[in-house]
Amino acid sequence: MTWLLELLRRQTNSWWDFLDIAIVAILFYQLLLLIRGTRAVQIALTAGFLIGLFFLSEWLELEMVNWIIRNLAGYVVFAIIVLFQPDIRRAMAHFGRASLLRHFRRAQSANETIEDVVATAATLASQHTGALIVMERQIGLRNYVEGGIPLEAMVTYDLLASIFQPASPLHDGAAIIQGDRVSAAGCFLPLSVSPGVRREMGTRHRAAIGLTEENDAIAIVVSEETGSISLALGGELQRGLSPEALRSRLQSLLGRRRGRLTRGDSRSPLA
What is the pLDDT of residues 153-180, one digit of tens each? Predict the structure, then answer.
């Protein structure tokens, strides 16, 4: 605790101090983005608890607790490296691929993703082909992605439409979209057990409601029986949406600019 008291006693701060703090904050934020939705979140929370317990033991002079934490720290570091070797390798690859221009492309990419999703829903609805598409927001969906068939492909109308064709082995599960990529298909989602859900609702609608009851994701459902389009959010289901209404809702929920892009306008299902 001595270093913290010395830091607080400092009266003047230079621009280098603010730059130092900004760099650390950016690195910490990028680390949180990398572990979001993974098993590492629980490890990070446990590590934070142990660090807090360590300082608390020093303050309250709990010698036994302090001794145990100090002696276990080295072993915990090695255990994390062994257990999370794939995640660490993926994180290093992520930083290597990072582009300085990715933030400028994000808004356009989100609009293109929305157009592809809306076009797919409209086409499948006209054909009375069932579909369940999940779009990740703030809370990660990696637990459900790992239970499906990994794709890691760019979101396109052709890809989404082919996934939900009746002859496809993936059409019964959900397709999960993370950013501008279809991370996995054929994913199994938790079914809602809420007594307020109507009995006539099928498995897709119950899965969409069940997922959004515990997650902030957006679930788009196309009914195989009626050909209607529904959107689930926060455990609530909005039914009978038109393609235009679906587009408007997605643009509003994903926080992107409104308006149709050229790619979407050229598709006949939405004309």
Answer: 999 999 999 999 988 888 889 999 998 8
